[in-house]
Amino acid sequence: MWIISAAAIALYLVPLMTGQNSDLLRAAAVLLLIMSLLATGALPEYLTSLLFFLLAMALAIAPAAVVFSGFASSSLWLVFGGLIIVEAVTGTGLGSRVASSLLSRLTLTYTRLIALAVLFSTVLAY
């Protein structure tokens, strides 16, 4: 982790020492640092993601409209809303209560289990 971080810092400082203005090397340095933090788990994922946004804006890697353009996508908010609902169902125990109440009334064979899985998947798809 420290070796990759040192390489990212060196990659960032090379254009400064040589007098060149290379936006590409600065972006590569930030991405190398963030990928090493994500791969090693040295920081929690949410903190590493926030660090990416901070570095991208502080070092002027790209304009704010480009850096934060992913948040304008409606699919992001659909997935985010789904994650909130899943966390609520899991945290309250509603999912396990519903599953145990449904499965306690049935005698399951392998065929019935597969048929129920297909049936519930189809119902939940709508």
List the helices and strands and how they pair.
Layout: H1 2-18, H2 23-40, H3 45-58, H4 64-67, H5 74-92, H6 94-104, H7 110-125
Helix pairs in contact: 1-2, 2-3
What's the short story on this structure?
The chain has 126 residues and is mainly alpha-helical. 79% of the residues lie in helices and 0% in strands. It folds into two domains: 2-70, no CATH class; 73-125, no CATH class.
Salient structural properties:
7 helices, 126 residues, mainly alpha, 79% helix, single chain
Notes on the structure:
The chain is mostly helical and 126 residues long. The chain folds into 2 domains: 69 residues, no CATH class; 53 residues, no CATH class. The chain contains 7 helices and no strands. It is elongated, with a radius of gyration of 24 Å.
Biggest beta-sheet profile: none
Strand content: under 5%
Percent range of helical residues: over 70%
Average of the residue pLDDT scores: 86
Q: Which geometry do the CA atoms define?
A: elongated
